[in-house]
Amino acid sequence: MGLAPIITIHVPGPLRAYCAGAAQLSISAHTVRAALEDLQRRQSALYRNVCDETGAVRRHLNVFVNSDNVRDLNGVDTTLASGDVVTILPAVSGG
Amino acid sequence: MADRIILTIGTKKGVFVAEAAKPRRSFALRGPFGPGIPVYSTLIDTRGTPRLYASSCNPFFGMKVLRSTDMGKSFTETKSAPAFPKDDGRALANIWSLEAGADKKDLWCGVEPASLFRSRDGGDSWDMVPGISNHDHARKWQPGNGGLCMHTIIRDGNRVHLGISTGGHYLSEDGGETFRASNQGVGAGFAPDPYPEFGQCVHKIARHDNAPGRLYMQNHGGWADWTGPGGPRPDIGVLRSDDYGHSWRSIAKGLPSDFGFPIVVHPHDADTVYVMPLEGPTRTCPGAAPAAWRSESGGESWSRLARGLPKKQSYFTVLRDAMDIDRLKSPALYFGTTTGQLWIGREGGEQWDCLFDSLPPIHNVKVAVV
Predict the structure, then answer these.
(1) Could you tell me which chain B residue has the CA closest to the CA of A62?
(2) What was the ipTM of the complex prediction?
(3) Percent of the residues in chain B that have a pLDDT greater than 90, as a whole number
(4) What is the pLDDT of residues B181-199, one digit of tens each?
(5) Could you give the CA distance from residue B320 to residue B318 in angstroms, rounded to a whole number?
(6) What's the pTM?
(7) B86: which chain A residues are within 8 Å (Cβ-Cβ)?
(8) Are A93 and B12 an interchain contact pair (Cβ–Cβ within 8 Å)?
(9) Domain limits of chain A?
(10) How far does A2 lie from chain B, in Å, by closest CA?
(11) HEC sequence for A15-40
(12) Nearest chain A CA: its distance from B79 CA (Å)
């Protein structure tokens, strides 16, 4: 596998306090899973807000690659290409 | 600043703090802190300089523990919240109880799925307590309507009582190292066996320092008319133990319903106990006319306390941690409702007034005199 593509993670407003206020993070990763693992290493506070203790993406969060929910792609094994934008968003809910 | 009354109010939309001078004529309200996020448990830790704690149960980004060192004028997150070991397979879904431990920085925390955590540094780091969290029964407990929650932690020297819905009452007599199910006399309404070893839907447990061995329990009642396997089980909802929780007996006779969530003991009289009966099917007050019920005889008889409360068309629920009592000479009872009202029952519940009537749905009310 060659050099990992550089992608951008878009951080939602409520989570920016956990990554020094950054709205975007630039990282290298072949897959969404690898991107999350990179977050676990480099942005552990942010990672804990995105994934639970088992490593699963929290139930009420959605992860998009560009405009597609990874649920409709290949889940966290969705491959990434250079320039992709990974967006983490809370699911819509009421109450 | 002696003799201030502090209330922590955990709601669906954050935690509020109310404060009053000793006469309790009016309360000033602060908050919400952790706005928009449900708070199911709070703790007013009066050991040394008072500290307030609240669980901020964020359905999106996970659980946080909030701490205030300025009497609820501000809250900040502790450095971490309880979390299961990575290879455990369970993920924290909610924080249901926070209790003070043995020394100033010792905290205990009950969570969903039902497990116990302990912090030795005031909430900055947490360790799972394996004696109950990895108990042989733990993977057999089933969630109740509110989830599989450990909602009650009572410490009494080396004894630790835990209430789990639905798991039942678990007792440790070695400081929390090991636990065993201790449910003799505690009925279950949703299983063919009316008195199983474990799996009861205990709603809340309370005790009094001056009555060694005495415990009161609000269990999941409302099964008097059950016609299914095992037959009816009347009066299993309100119970008492006089042997440190080894066995339990019903004290529900005289109540309009044995279903309810909170149970509270008078601070100066171990024979005086309060419940808030609800209709089982609706979880609202019988006849839509809310009332606290008080026994001054350890459960032998009960009287209705409703002066000042609505007389009709009132359909709220009072949840398991939404009632407490202060420790002044003539104590006041407090309860919060799922419709966002906070009530004070002065003179031990004789006269009720609404302190706040438009808060978010209330999960938790704690009071302390500081």
Answers:
(1) B60
(2) 0.75
(3) 88
(4) 999 999 998 777 889 999 9
(5) 7
(6) 0.92
(7) 53-55
(8) no
(9) 6-90
(10) 30
(11) HHHHHCCCCEEEEECCEHHHHHHHHH
(12) 10
From the list B93, B96, B120, the residue with the least C-alpha distance to B109 is B96
Separation in Å, CA of B200 to nearest CA in chain A: 28
Per the document, the length of chain B is 370
Plot region of B295 (φ>0 → left; ψ -120 to 50 → alpha; else → beta): beta
Domains located in chain B, CATH noted: 4-369 (2.130.10.10)
Q: Rounded to whole angstroms, what are the CA distances from A62 to A68, A87, A90, B59, B311?
A: 10, 8, 6, 13, 47
* Chain A residues close to B90, C-beta within 8 Å: 53-54
From the CA atom positions of chain A, what is the Rg in Å?
13
- Residue B117 pairs in a beta bridge with B109, B128
**Among candidates B59, B61, B92 on the partner chain, residue whose Cβ is nearest the Cβ of A53:** B92
**B2's tokens:** 């002696």
Q: What is the pLDDT along chain A (95 residues), one digit of tens a residue?
A: 688 999 999 998 889 999 999 999 999 999 999 999 999 999 999 999 999 999 999 988 889 999 888 988 999 999 999 999 999 988 765 55
What is the Cα–Cα distance from B117 to B119, expressed in whole angstroms?
A: 7
User: What confidence tens digit (pLDDT) does each residue in A58-74 have?
Assistant: 988 889 999 888 988 99
Map residue B299 onto helix, strand or coil.
coil
| pLDDT category of residue B310 using cuts at 50, 70 and 90 | very high
CA distance B17 to A75: 43
Is B358 in contact with B349 (CB distance < 8 Å)?
Answer: no
Q: Pick the residue of A39, A53, A93 with the most B CBs within 10 A to test the interface with B by mutation.
A: A53
**Which two tokens mark B369?**
């005199």
- Closest to B62 (Cα-Cα) out of B25, B92, B31: B92
Q: Position of tokens 């009420």?
A: A60
Supply the pLDDT for residue B217.
98
- Please provide the CATH number assigned to the domain covering A6-90: 3.10.20.30
Nearest Cβ partner for B60 among A55, A58, A95: A58
